[in-house]
Known about the structure:
Helix content of chain A: 25-40%
Order of helices and strands of chain A: EHEHEEEHHHHEEHEEEHEEEHHH
Strand order of the largest sheet of chain A: 4-5-10-6-7
Number of strands of chain B: 6
Bound molecules: flavin-adenine dinucleotide, FE2/S2 (inorganic) cluster
Mean pLDDT of chain A: 97
CATH class of the largest domain in chain A: Alpha Beta
Low-confidence stretches of chain A: none
Order of helices and strands of chain B: EEEHEEEHHHH
Number of domains of chain A: 3
Strand content of chain B: 15-25%
Number of helices of chain B: 5
Largest interface: A-B, 33 and 33 residues
Distance between the termini of chain B: 51 Å
Oligomer: heterodimer
Amino acid sequence: MIxxxxxxxxxxxxxxAVKLFHQLNNESKNPLYYSGGTEIVTNAxxxxxxxxxxxxxxxxxxxxxxxETEDAILLGANLTLNExxxxxxxxxxxxxxxxxxxxxxxxxxxxxxxICGRLAYREAILPLLTTEAKxxxxxxxxxxxxxxxxxxDKRLKLQKGEILLQVExxxxxxxxxxxxxxxxxxxxxxxxLVHVVALKxxxxxxxxxxxxxxxxxxxxEIEEILNDKNLSFEERAKKVVDKLxxxxxxDVFASKDFREFLMERSIIHTLKNLEGGI
Amino acid sequence: MKTYKDYEAINLSINGETRKxxxxxxxTLLRVLREKLGLTGGKPGCENGDCGACTILLxxxxxxxxxxxxxxxxxxxxxxxxxxxxxxxxxxxxEYGGFQCGYCTSGFLLNAYALLETHPDADDDTIKEWLxxxxxxxxxxxxxxxxxxxxQKKKAxx
Lengths: 278, 158
Ligand SMILES: Cc1cc2nc3c(=O)[nH]c(=O)nc-3n(C[C@H](O)[C@H](O)[C@H](O)COP(=O)(O)OP(=O)(O)OC[C@H]3O[C@@H](n4cnc5c(N)ncnc54)[C@H](O)[C@@H]3O)c2cc1C
Ligand code: FES
Ligand code: FES
């Protein structure tokens, strides 16, 4: 049970949602956009978040689109993960998000919620980071479209009151060879200790990671190492771990050393799969 | 735009009936079903999305009612375990010992029922993927697994 009250709004347009957000913010109601609600409801129950107003964005039509054109796949941020798995044609994304939570939770948990959520993992961003995806954002000045590399650095850099509305992925990126490996502590239904996601484009591997650090990332420096064919797979894997953008996580789920060991194994498997050889 | 600022009398469509109930906007669907409508089949377990004891069907799809607000269920069709009667999956759970203490059972039944309605020819991987959403601390899953396979065959007339 949630121990406090909040107002609930369900706007039909993104313009209405953004305007309402600022209005409620000016009234000091600490509004929150609400999509699948799985994180907000759970955290509100635990009193980890306090809000005076929820803005449910699921009635905004642009956020519910799933469309394929000749050049791109367009995914609304309000789509549930199961809607994407069943309806979209990007195998890497589908395989990665199939590992998030469980089938029943995926009937509510949304793409936008996963990418904008507070947890460290945010696995749905990984396949997007390896592509030339564009993120369509609604704010006070209307819509803007930014490349995922530009707008994502440890987190999606939204200004206050902005909504992630859509993700547009170039079709050519969705047809490339890929590999991903996710390691959990116990069963499959668990948070990842390490998740490595990689695409091969024009003979170069592009890779994104989560679980190992406190945020998901893609790193040019790490990609240089991954693509350095003068080094063996094992040497590359070791060097990658030395070049992580922050300390490896070290917590009750897994020690730093164990996470780094898993990361090295997963990188070797990725290289074997995408580069071939022994 | 729909705006709800105060306590609200809302209509929910549950098991084919319209039920009127007064809620506050922060009430979860699980709590409203159990504490205001007397539909206690859905159970509070973790209230964290992990156990599946609170599973209900929303427009035919399984969802965890502890993680959604009751207000979101307006204009949707809700099925709780009280709305399932004499189905093949229920009979098979009894026949194959799909439960012991029964705390997880309503969630398992609704999830399995939705699975067989959506994918009558579900293969082992699909069954596993759907049913991994529910935890049982008593049975070891053997009886549940047999019950689902049996209900699937019965529905297919095999
Ligand atoms: C049982 C369970 C298991 C999980 N397992 C995993 C896992 O394995 N891997 C993983 O990566 N994550 C996992 N998660 C975390 C989950 O992906 C996040 O909590 C996610 O935020 C939930 O999405 P939602 O749509 O329900 O978000 P909501 O609860 O609706 O929102 C979460 C946050 O994102 C903001 N937000 C939502 N949509 C938008 C938008 N379009 N634009 C701007 N802000 C927005 C909200 O304001 C809020 O701050 C799990 C969660 C649960 C409950
Ligand atoms: S009570 Fe809802 S998932 Fe456990
Ligand atoms: S029968 Fe007791 S938890 Fe499943």
